[in-house]
Design goal:
It contains 14 helices and 12 strands. The chain is an alpha/beta fold.
C-alpha cells in the first residue's frame, strides 16, 4: 500500500532552517572551514547544577511514571515565583500558567486551540518562521504586520489596514526579537494593550529571549504592562536562558482563558513532560540566576566584538538591544539569498538570509552570536576580501 500525506501536511511551509543546514553541511563536506553564523542553537552547556538536578530526578522511580497531564504543580509555582521575583508580575500558578514541551509547541498549537478555520491571525514580518506552521494547521487566514528599521522593528498599529484589524483575532509579537535583536519599550507594550482592548484582539508574546538584553537594559515582560493579562499570554522557555534547548521545556503565562485552551488541547495531544525534566526546570527557575547573567554578559561581549569587526570593513549593523543575533544589511547588487550564497561559497561563512523570516526581511541577513569571538574577526576579514560595497 502507498500512503499519501494529508492536504494539511502538503501545504505546510518549507522548513527554512532545515534548508539552511543542508547548504552548510554540503559546504562542510567539501572540507571547507565554515564559520557558521547562521545558526540559532545555543552553543554553551546547560549549567552543572541543572544537569545534576536532572540526574538525581531521573534516578527516582516516581519520576518513571506518567506525569500529570497539566504539569507538575511545583513547576507551575516555580514559574509564578520566577515572574514575581524577576518582573513583579503576580500569576495564579493553576489558572494562569501552562507547562509546555518548549515554547514552540505553545506558539504552534494556540491558533487551533482558540481560532476557527477562516479566522485571521496577525504575524510579524520579519518573524520566526515556525509561526507559519500554526497558520496552516489551524486553517486560518494570515495577515502580516510589517516591521521596519525606521520604527525599530516595532509594529506601527496605525498603518494596519482597518479591515484587517477588524477581522483579526490574534496578534503575535516577539521581543527581544528574532531575527532583528530589537527590543520592546514600556510605551510600545502600553500601546499594544490599548490596541488589543479597542479591537478585541488577543496578544501572544513570544519571550524566548527574555533575559538577553544589552547595554545595561533588562528586557521587559509583556505581562508587566497594566491590562496585559486581560488580553494575552506570554510564551517563555528555558532554552535560551539556561541553554536547555534540547530539553524542550517552557511555560505559557497570562490570560486564564487562553491558558485553559492550551491545557485542554494538550490534554489530547500529550501526557505532559518527563517528570525529571520538570524537576530540573524547577531548580533552574528557583536559582539565583547568576548563570543567566554570566551568559548575557558573554553574548554582549560577542555582539560588541562582531560589531567592531563588521564596522572595520564598513558593514554597519542594526544596533540590536537583545537576543543573540545581529541583523545586517545586504551590500549593493545582492538579494538576501544571493548574498548568503556568495558568503558560503566564496568565504565559507554561513549566515541566514533575511527573506527566510518573511518578505520584509529582504535586504538583510541574520548573524548568530554563537561562536567564539576571534571567529567573528576572521569571518569579517574573509568577507572583506570579496570587495563588496556596503555603503
Amino acid at each position: 500500500m502507498k500512503f499519501e500525506e494529508s492536504d494539511i501536511l502538503q501545504h505546510l511551509p518549507k522548513q527554512f532552517f532545515a534548508s539552511l543546514v543542508k547548504k552548510v553541511n554540503a559546504k562542510v563536506a567539501t572540507g571547507a572551514d565554515v564559520i557558521n553564523l547562521g545558526q540559532g542553537n545555543p552553543d554553551q552547556p546547560t549549567p552543572d547544577f541543572v544537569v545534576k538536578a536532572m540526574q538525581d530526578a531521573t534516578a527516582e522511580p516516581d519520576n518513571h511514571k506518567y506525569s500529570l497531564f497539566r504539569g507538575d504543580p511545583e513547576l507551575k509555582q516555580a514559574a509564578a515565583d520566577f515572574y514575581q521575583r524577576e518582573y513583579g508580575v503576580t500569576l495564579d500558578p493553576e489558572k494562569e500558567i501552562a507547562i509546555l514541551g518548549g515554547s514552540k509547541i505553545g506558539l504552534v498549537e494556540l491558533p487551533f486551540a482558540v481560532l476557527n478555520p477562516g479566522d485571521t491571525l496577525l504575524l510579524p514580518d520579519p518573524g520566526y518562521p515556525d509561526y507559519l506552521s500554526g497558520v496552516t494547521l489551524a486553517k486560518v487566514n494570515l495577515e502580516l504586520v510589517k516591521l521596519t528599521e525606521q520604527n525599530d522593528f516595532l509594529p506601527d498599529y496605525d498603518t494596519i489596514d482597518p479591515a484587517v484589524v477588524k477581522a483579526a483575532k490574534l496578534l503575535y509579537l516577539n521581543y527581544p526579537n528574532n531575527p532583528t535583536g530589537a527590543v520592546a519599550t514600556p510605551e510600545f507594550f502600553r500601546k499594544t494593550v490599548a490596541f488589543a482592548q479597542q479591537n478585541d484582539i488577543g496578544i501572544v508574546h513570544d519571550f524566548a529571549y527574555g533575559p538577553i538584553g544589552f547595554d545595561g537594559h533588562k528586557p521587559i515582560s509583556f505581562l508587566q504592562t497594566p491590562g496585559a493579562k486581560d488580553v494575552g499570554v506570554e510564551m517563555n522557555t528555558l532554552s535560551k536562558s539556561f541553554n536547555m534547548a534540547g530539553w524542550r521545556i517552557g511555560v505559557a503565562a497570562g490570560n486564564p482563558d487562553l491558558i485553559e485552551a492550551i491545557n485542554l488541547i494538550q490534554d489530547h495531544l500529550f501526557v505532559s513532560i518527563f517528570p525529571a525534566i520538570q524537576k530540573a526546570a524547577i531548580t533552574a527557575l528557583n536559582s539565583d540566576q547568576s548563570t543567566v547573567k554570566a551568559l548575557v554578559a558573554l553574548y554582549e561581549k560577542r555582539r560588541n566584538q562582531f560589531f567592531k569587526a563588521a564596522r572595520a570593513i564598513g558593514w554597519e549593523p542594526y544596533h540590536s538591544g537583545g537576543a543573540f543575533y545581529a541583523w545586517m544589511p545586504v551590500p549593493k547588487g545582492y538579494t538576501s539569498e544571493s548574498f548568503a550564497d556568495l558568503l558560503l561559497e566564496k568565504a565559507a561563512v554561513a549566515v541566514a538570509p533575511g527573506n527566510g523570516f518573511g518578505e520584509a526581511g529582504e535586504g538583510y541577513v541574520r548573524v548568530g552570536l554563537l561562536i567564539d569571538e576571534p571567529r567573528f574577526t576572521e569571518a569579517c576579514q574573509r568577507i572583506d576580501k570579496l570587495g563588496l560595497d556596503f555603503s
